[in-house]
């Protein structure tokens, strides 16, 4: 048993993990002062309870200390997930280091992390200062050494996770308390600073409103590149990208924004080729990797693109990839300086909540469980494909062939439409009332939509006209085989009911009403 681990040792590594040049000193003094149970305390305990029992209790505590010390030294995802008790011990020790928790602290500033409600204080483990300083979101906060340690550690764990996920040469990342769309805006606005004339964003079409808003709200003009239909797949039109760049002049272009994770039948963009184009024309390349971190098809593309050409940053959602509540995203890249410039563009301090949610989740999960979840997801994708395929052939439909998309898949809804004016998207609503969420039904009737002033034909389909109507489903992290089974059973019932309703020429609505008691 390694008895040399003690409180002081932990502090030494703590100090090293945040380069503060003595800023942590004050808090560490306080930490030592408030520190739970040192050797002397244990000695005093032996006057109350027999020495051997106290010794045993001390040994148990060493297990927690050892894990914490290892984390601070290596700053990588632990292989085995931690127990909640170890995680809570660390969170308590870190929050004790923040000035709002200093005993006798006298705050006379306008922001002193006072928390009115004990419920709120508990919900945040008494962290109140958020992360960052006014000048930079990844800067350490002198008033909050504990929060700063947590932020630095979480960013470091996240970089490890990104590498484990398949982007081995990622150099830097940081967690932002804004969802993906806002983080894409932050990246583009940072690129703009060194490209004063730029106002266009070259954007291979992906029908997701936050993507469009990320450009328009930032004051940029999206230049829509229509996708090519290749077999069943919708893929990047590289020729059109090059033509647009030449037409508009590279200097006027903020970046090319590509997308990895997307609804089938669209597949991830041709990242390698785009990154080469961006390198050739000296244009920043921003990748929307919203839920792509969980899929090696997406991560390998990003890794390869960075080898072949230019990738400035890739952005992913925290909730979609790590099963935490919505609220954060991760901005990552291959050049630490560039990623730092994006973190410096963030105005002001930021909520620590998405960071803490990830800190807790990653420690609780550990690398082994994370890899297991990724593997299960891949297996569930295969399982979903085979089950959906069965249901499809039962109804004279088929699974769309979209081998480049490793998360989402589509099933045709061609024969199911008997009457032209029948709204196939009804199937989506019918599934939703049966507690199936996340599917999308796309009809192929082209209607114009205006999304934030941008005219998009047939919005939702990623193209103006697709070969057939279809329904999509995705296998994402945390999904179970039971979810798949339940989904296909309910889908089968819904399709039967829908067909009987169109067959008998009556309204789906009325069939729905007649049978609304036997849901699902
Ligand atoms: C989820 C998602 C986004 C962004 O959504 P946020 O709500 O901003 O996280 C953007 N693009 C795609 C493809 C997405 O799936």
Automatic annotation (TrEMBL):
Essential cofactor(s): pyridoxal 5'-phosphate
Q: Name one Pfam family in it.
A: SepSecS
Compartments where located: Cytoplasm
Which residues are recorded as binding pyridoxal 5'-phosphate? 111
Its primary localisation, in coarse terms, equals cytoplasm
* E.C. numbers: 2.9.1.2
Residues bound to substrate: 133-134, 141, 349
List residues traversing the bilayer.
none
Question: Which pathway is this protein engaged in?
Answer: Aminoacyl-tRNA biosynthesis; selenocysteinyl-tRNA(Sec) biosynthesis; selenocysteinyl-tRNA(Sec) from L-seryl-tRNA(Sec) (archaeal/eukaryal route): step 2/2
Which terms in the Gene Ontology molecular function aspect does this entry carry? O-phosphoseryl-tRNA(Sec) selenium transferase activity; tRNA binding
**A GO BP term, please?**
selenocysteine incorporation
Reaction catalysis annotation: O-phospho-L-seryl-tRNA(Sec) + selenophosphate + H2O = L-selenocysteinyl-tRNA(Sec) + 2 phosphate
Q: Which top EC class applies here?
A: transferase
Please give the residue positions where the record annotates the modification N6-(pyridoxal phosphate)lysine. Answer: 320
The entry's keywords: Cytoplasm, Protein biosynthesis, Pyridoxal phosphate, RNA-binding, Selenium, Transferase, tRNA-binding
Site feature (May act as a substrate filter by repelling compounds with a negatively charged alpha-carboxylate) residues: 110
Under InterPro entries, the record lists: PyrdxlP-dep_Trfase, PyrdxlP-dep_Trfase_major, Sec-tRNA_Se_transferase, SepSecS/SepCysS
Where tRNA is bound, by residue? 307, 434
Q: Which GO terms describe its cellular component?
A: cytoplasm
| Quaternary state and interactors | Homotetramer formed by a catalytic dimer and a non-catalytic dimer serving as a binding platform that orients tRNASec for catalysis. Each tetramer binds the CCA ends of two tRNAs which point to the active sites of the catalytic dimer.
What family does the entry list?
Belongs to the SepSecS family.
Function, as annotated: Converts O-phosphoseryl-tRNA(Sec) to selenocysteinyl-tRNA(Sec) required for selenoprotein biosynthesis.
Q: Which PANTHER family match?
A: O-PHOSPHOSERYL-TRNA(SEC) SELENIUM TRANSFERASE, SOLUBLE LIVER ANTIGEN/LIVER PANCREAS ANTIGEN
Q: What is this protein called?
A: O-phosphoseryl-tRNA(Sec) selenium transferase
Organism encoding this protein:
Mytilus coruscus
Give the source lineage, highest ranks first: Eukaryota, Metazoa, Spiralia, Lophotrochozoa, Mollusca
